[in-house]
Amino acid sequence: xxxxxxxxxxxxxxxxxxxxxxxxVQAGEYVCALPLRSVRRVLRALxxxxxxxxxxxxxxxxxxxxxxxxxxxxxxxxxxxxxxxxAHPVTIVVWVGPQDARELVGLAADAAxxxxxxxxxxxxxxxxxxILGEALVDGAVVRVxxxxxxxxxx
Amino acid sequence: MSPALSPVxxxxxxxxxxxxxxxxxxxxxxxxxxxxxARFRLRVGGAELGVDEVVGVxxxxxxxxxxxxxxxxxxxxxxxxxxxxxxxxxxxxxxRPPHALRLAGSEGEMSDGEGRR
Lengths: 154, 117
What we know:
The structure holds 2 protein chains of 2 kinds. Chain A is mainly β. Chain A has one domain (about 20-150): CATH 2.40.50.180. Helices cover about 5% and strands about 45% of the residues of chain A. Chain A contains 1 helix and 11 strands, in the order E-E-E-E-E-H-E-E-E-E-E-E. Chain A has one helix spanning about 75-80; strands at about 20-25, 30-35, 40-45, 60-65, 65-75, 90-95, 105-110, 110-115, 125, 130-135, 140-145. By secondary structure, chain B is mainly β. Chain B has 1 helix and 8 strands, in the order ββββββαββ. Chain B has one helix at about 70-75; strands at about 10-20, 20-25, 30-35, 40-45, 45-50, 55-65, 80-85, 85-90. In chain B, the strands form 2 sheets. A 5-stranded mixed β-sheet of chain B has the order 6-1-2-8-7, with no helix packed on it. Chain B has a 3-stranded antiparallel β-sheet with strand order 3-4-5, with no helix packed on it. Chain B starts with 7 loop residues before the first strand and ends in a 26-residue tail after the last strand. Mean pLDDT of chain B is about 85; it is low at about 110-115. Chains A and B meet through strand 4, strand 5 and strand 7 of A and helix 1, strand 7 and strand 8 of B.
Protein backbone atom coordinates (compact mmCIF):
# COMPACT_ATOMS: atom_id res chain seq x y z
CA UNK A 1 0.00 0.00 0.00
CA UNK A 2 1.22 3.43 -0.78
CA UNK A 3 1.89 5.81 2.07
CA UNK A 4 -0.11 8.96 2.53
CA UNK A 5 1.32 12.16 1.10
CA UNK A 6 1.24 15.00 3.59
CA UNK A 7 -0.45 18.14 2.40
CA UNK A 8 1.86 21.07 1.97
CA UNK A 9 0.84 24.19 3.80
CA UNK A 10 -2.52 24.52 5.47
CA UNK A 11 -1.89 27.97 6.85
CA UNK A 12 -4.74 29.69 5.12
CA UNK A 13 -7.40 27.39 6.51
CA UNK A 14 -9.06 28.97 9.50
CA UNK A 15 -10.87 27.04 12.23
CA UNK A 16 -11.64 23.60 10.76
CA UNK A 17 -13.53 22.41 7.71
CA UNK A 18 -16.30 24.34 6.05
CA UNK A 19 -18.27 23.96 2.85
CA UNK A 20 -15.68 26.20 1.27
CA UNK A 21 -12.68 24.09 2.30
CA UNK A 22 -10.95 22.84 -0.82
CA UNK A 23 -7.79 20.95 -1.61
CA UNK A 24 -5.79 22.81 -4.23
CA VAL A 25 -3.94 20.61 -6.69
CA GLN A 26 -1.76 21.22 -9.71
CA ALA A 27 -3.05 19.63 -12.92
CA GLY A 28 -0.98 20.61 -15.92
CA GLU A 29 -0.87 24.40 -16.00
CA TYR A 30 -4.08 24.73 -13.99
CA VAL A 31 -4.57 24.88 -10.25
CA CYS A 32 -7.76 23.05 -9.35
CA ALA A 33 -9.87 23.07 -6.21
CA LEU A 34 -11.44 19.83 -4.98
CA PRO A 35 -14.09 19.98 -2.25
CA LEU A 36 -12.29 18.70 0.83
CA ARG A 37 -15.31 16.75 2.06
CA SER A 38 -15.03 14.60 -1.08
CA VAL A 39 -11.31 13.88 -0.67
CA ARG A 40 -10.59 10.55 0.99
CA ARG A 41 -6.83 10.21 0.60
CA VAL A 42 -3.85 11.82 -1.07
CA LEU A 43 -1.23 9.29 -2.09
CA ARG A 44 1.98 9.20 -3.99
CA ALA A 45 1.02 8.27 -7.55
CA LEU A 46 -0.45 4.79 -7.59
CA UNK A 47 0.72 2.22 -10.10
CA UNK A 48 -1.85 2.28 -12.88
CA UNK A 49 -2.67 -0.47 -15.36
CA UNK A 50 -3.98 1.06 -18.62
CA UNK A 51 -7.14 -0.42 -20.15
CA UNK A 52 -7.22 -1.01 -23.90
CA UNK A 53 -9.74 1.17 -25.68
CA UNK A 54 -10.05 3.69 -22.86
CA UNK A 55 -10.42 7.37 -23.63
CA UNK A 56 -7.54 9.71 -22.82
CA UNK A 57 -9.18 10.78 -19.56
CA UNK A 58 -8.91 7.28 -18.07
CA UNK A 59 -5.36 6.39 -17.06
CA UNK A 60 -6.39 2.89 -16.04
CA UNK A 61 -6.99 0.76 -12.99
CA UNK A 62 -5.12 0.78 -9.72
CA UNK A 63 -5.45 -1.03 -6.41
CA UNK A 64 -6.43 0.94 -3.35
CA UNK A 65 -7.05 -0.73 -0.01
CA UNK A 66 -7.61 -4.09 -1.67
CA UNK A 67 -10.21 -2.70 -4.06
CA UNK A 68 -10.01 -1.85 -7.76
CA UNK A 69 -9.88 1.89 -8.39
CA UNK A 70 -10.38 3.66 -11.74
CA UNK A 71 -7.80 6.44 -12.07
CA UNK A 72 -8.62 9.50 -14.17
CA UNK A 73 -6.16 12.08 -15.48
CA UNK A 74 -7.32 15.33 -13.92
CA UNK A 75 -5.57 17.57 -16.44
CA UNK A 76 -7.29 15.76 -19.32
CA UNK A 77 -10.68 15.95 -17.63
CA UNK A 78 -10.56 19.72 -17.40
CA UNK A 79 -8.63 20.41 -20.58
CA UNK A 80 -5.58 21.83 -18.83
CA UNK A 81 -2.49 22.48 -20.97
CA UNK A 82 0.33 20.09 -20.20
CA UNK A 83 2.79 21.43 -17.66
CA UNK A 84 6.30 20.45 -16.74
CA UNK A 85 6.95 16.84 -15.79
CA UNK A 86 5.85 16.60 -12.16
CA ALA A 87 8.51 15.80 -9.58
CA HIS A 88 6.09 14.24 -7.09
CA PRO A 89 2.89 13.21 -8.85
CA VAL A 90 -0.01 12.16 -6.67
CA THR A 91 -3.21 10.18 -6.82
CA ILE A 92 -6.08 11.83 -5.01
CA VAL A 93 -8.80 9.38 -4.01
CA VAL A 94 -12.14 11.16 -4.13
CA TRP A 95 -15.84 10.46 -3.95
CA VAL A 96 -17.65 11.35 -7.17
CA GLY A 97 -21.27 11.33 -8.23
CA PRO A 98 -24.41 12.29 -6.34
CA GLN A 99 -24.51 11.64 -2.60
CA ASP A 100 -26.88 8.67 -2.91
CA ALA A 101 -24.81 6.93 -5.57
CA ARG A 102 -21.29 8.07 -4.92
CA GLU A 103 -18.28 6.04 -5.93
CA LEU A 104 -14.53 6.23 -5.42
CA VAL A 105 -12.14 7.19 -8.18
CA GLY A 106 -8.52 8.25 -8.24
CA LEU A 107 -7.48 11.53 -9.82
CA ALA A 108 -3.93 11.64 -11.13
CA ALA A 109 -2.48 15.11 -10.56
CA ASP A 110 0.91 16.75 -10.64
CA ALA A 111 0.96 17.85 -7.01
CA ALA A 112 -1.19 18.44 -3.95
CA UNK A 113 -0.61 22.05 -2.94
CA UNK A 114 -2.59 23.08 0.12
CA UNK A 115 -6.00 23.33 1.73
CA UNK A 116 -7.65 26.65 1.20
CA UNK A 117 -10.99 28.38 1.51
CA UNK A 118 -12.85 28.99 -1.72
CA UNK A 119 -15.86 31.27 -1.36
CA UNK A 120 -18.45 29.41 -3.40
CA UNK A 121 -20.45 32.60 -3.85
CA UNK A 122 -17.49 34.05 -5.71
CA UNK A 123 -17.23 31.20 -8.20
CA UNK A 124 -17.80 32.33 -11.76
CA UNK A 125 -19.81 29.62 -13.51
CA UNK A 126 -17.94 27.29 -15.82
CA UNK A 127 -18.86 25.59 -19.08
CA UNK A 128 -21.11 22.95 -17.53
CA UNK A 129 -18.45 20.24 -17.84
CA UNK A 130 -16.28 19.05 -15.02
CA ILE A 131 -15.33 22.58 -14.04
CA LEU A 132 -17.94 24.12 -11.78
CA GLY A 133 -16.36 27.51 -12.29
CA GLU A 134 -13.40 29.69 -11.54
CA ALA A 135 -12.53 31.56 -8.37
CA LEU A 136 -9.73 33.71 -7.09
CA VAL A 137 -7.59 32.42 -4.24
CA ASP A 138 -4.92 34.85 -3.09
CA GLY A 139 -5.18 36.62 -6.43
CA ALA A 140 -4.68 33.48 -8.50
CA VAL A 141 -7.33 31.77 -10.63
CA VAL A 142 -8.29 28.27 -9.52
CA ARG A 143 -10.69 25.94 -11.32
CA VAL A 144 -13.27 24.42 -8.99
CA UNK A 145 -13.89 20.83 -10.07
CA UNK A 146 -17.43 19.46 -10.17
CA UNK A 147 -16.93 16.00 -8.69
CA UNK A 148 -20.65 15.24 -8.69
CA UNK A 149 -20.68 15.49 -12.48
CA UNK A 150 -17.94 12.85 -12.73
CA UNK A 151 -20.06 10.03 -11.35
CA UNK A 152 -22.19 7.71 -13.43
CA UNK A 153 -22.41 7.35 -17.16
CA UNK A 154 -22.76 10.29 -19.47
CA MET B 1 -15.97 1.58 -2.74
CA SER B 2 -19.34 3.11 -1.99
CA PRO B 3 -22.09 1.27 -0.11
CA ALA B 4 -23.90 1.00 -3.44
CA LEU B 5 -20.92 -0.78 -4.96
CA SER B 6 -20.36 -3.83 -2.81
CA PRO B 7 -18.36 -6.84 -3.88
CA VAL B 8 -19.86 -10.27 -4.44
CA UNK B 9 -17.70 -13.27 -3.68
CA UNK B 10 -17.71 -15.59 -6.64
CA UNK B 11 -15.87 -18.87 -7.06
CA UNK B 12 -13.41 -20.23 -9.56
CA UNK B 13 -11.69 -17.92 -12.03
CA UNK B 14 -9.15 -18.42 -14.76
CA UNK B 15 -6.73 -15.48 -14.78
CA UNK B 16 -5.21 -14.45 -18.09
CA UNK B 17 -3.17 -11.52 -19.31
CA UNK B 18 -3.18 -9.65 -22.59
CA UNK B 19 -1.16 -6.55 -23.40
CA UNK B 20 -0.29 -6.22 -19.73
CA UNK B 21 -3.91 -6.21 -18.54
CA UNK B 22 -5.11 -8.92 -16.17
CA UNK B 23 -8.50 -10.49 -16.86
CA UNK B 24 -10.58 -13.03 -14.94
CA UNK B 25 -12.93 -15.53 -16.58
CA UNK B 26 -15.32 -17.62 -14.54
CA UNK B 27 -14.29 -21.26 -14.84
CA UNK B 28 -17.87 -22.15 -15.72
CA UNK B 29 -17.76 -19.82 -18.72
CA UNK B 30 -14.61 -21.27 -20.31
CA UNK B 31 -15.73 -23.39 -23.26
CA UNK B 32 -12.27 -24.10 -24.56
CA UNK B 33 -8.61 -23.33 -23.98
CA UNK B 34 -5.83 -24.18 -26.41
CA UNK B 35 -2.36 -23.10 -27.41
CA UNK B 36 -2.02 -20.83 -30.40
CA UNK B 37 1.70 -20.60 -31.07
CA ALA B 38 3.23 -18.62 -28.25
CA ARG B 39 -0.20 -17.44 -27.15
CA PHE B 40 -3.44 -19.01 -26.01
CA ARG B 41 -6.91 -19.15 -27.46
CA LEU B 42 -9.96 -19.08 -25.22
CA ARG B 43 -13.54 -19.76 -26.18
CA VAL B 44 -16.03 -17.85 -24.05
CA GLY B 45 -19.66 -17.12 -24.84
CA GLY B 46 -19.15 -18.43 -28.35
CA ALA B 47 -16.37 -15.91 -29.01
CA GLU B 48 -12.75 -16.69 -29.70
CA LEU B 49 -10.47 -14.70 -27.41
CA GLY B 50 -6.71 -14.41 -27.61
CA VAL B 51 -4.47 -13.99 -24.57
CA ASP B 52 -0.73 -13.71 -24.08
CA GLU B 53 -0.47 -15.65 -20.86
CA VAL B 54 -2.48 -17.94 -18.63
CA VAL B 55 -1.63 -16.72 -15.15
CA GLY B 56 -3.46 -19.39 -13.20
CA VAL B 57 -6.68 -20.22 -11.42
CA UNK B 58 -7.97 -18.66 -8.23
CA UNK B 59 -10.64 -20.30 -6.10
CA UNK B 60 -12.49 -17.09 -5.28
CA UNK B 61 -12.61 -13.40 -6.13
CA UNK B 62 -14.49 -10.48 -4.65
CA UNK B 63 -16.09 -8.90 -7.70
CA UNK B 64 -17.13 -5.24 -7.70
CA UNK B 65 -19.59 -3.88 -10.24
CA UNK B 66 -18.20 -1.43 -12.79
CA UNK B 67 -18.27 2.12 -11.49
CA UNK B 68 -20.22 4.57 -13.60
CA UNK B 69 -17.18 6.82 -13.86
CA UNK B 70 -15.27 3.93 -15.42
CA UNK B 71 -18.03 3.11 -17.92
CA UNK B 72 -18.09 6.73 -18.99
CA UNK B 73 -14.48 6.56 -20.18
CA UNK B 74 -14.14 2.91 -21.14
CA UNK B 75 -16.63 1.68 -23.72
CA UNK B 76 -15.73 -2.01 -23.64
CA UNK B 77 -17.83 -4.64 -21.88
CA UNK B 78 -17.01 -6.31 -18.57
CA UNK B 79 -18.71 -8.17 -15.76
CA UNK B 80 -16.96 -6.30 -12.97
CA UNK B 81 -13.63 -5.57 -11.38
CA UNK B 82 -11.54 -7.43 -8.83
CA UNK B 83 -8.10 -7.46 -7.25
CA UNK B 84 -5.69 -10.38 -7.13
CA UNK B 85 -2.27 -10.17 -5.47
CA UNK B 86 -2.60 -6.37 -5.26
CA UNK B 87 -3.21 -6.13 -9.02
CA UNK B 88 -6.54 -4.92 -10.38
CA UNK B 89 -8.26 -7.10 -12.94
CA UNK B 90 -11.28 -6.99 -15.20
CA UNK B 91 -13.88 -9.73 -15.04
CA UNK B 92 -15.05 -11.00 -18.42
CA UNK B 93 -18.81 -11.00 -18.97
CA UNK B 94 -19.39 -14.31 -20.78
CA UNK B 95 -22.58 -12.95 -22.33
CA ARG B 96 -20.64 -10.03 -23.85
CA PRO B 97 -16.96 -10.94 -24.23
CA PRO B 98 -14.78 -7.82 -24.43
CA HIS B 99 -13.60 -6.49 -27.76
CA ALA B 100 -10.14 -6.03 -26.25
CA LEU B 101 -9.67 -9.80 -26.05
CA ARG B 102 -11.33 -10.87 -29.25
CA LEU B 103 -9.42 -12.39 -32.09
CA ALA B 104 -9.86 -10.69 -35.43
CA GLY B 105 -13.05 -11.88 -37.11
CA SER B 106 -14.59 -13.24 -33.91
CA GLU B 107 -17.89 -11.51 -33.27
CA GLY B 108 -19.30 -13.91 -30.76
CA GLU B 109 -21.67 -15.88 -32.95
CA MET B 110 -21.81 -19.59 -32.33
CA SER B 111 -20.47 -21.74 -35.14
CA ASP B 112 -20.99 -25.43 -35.74
CA GLY B 113 -17.30 -26.24 -35.70
CA GLU B 114 -17.02 -26.25 -39.49
CA GLY B 115 -17.16 -22.52 -39.94
CA ARG B 116 -20.94 -22.37 -40.48
CA ARG B 117 -22.93 -19.96 -38.33
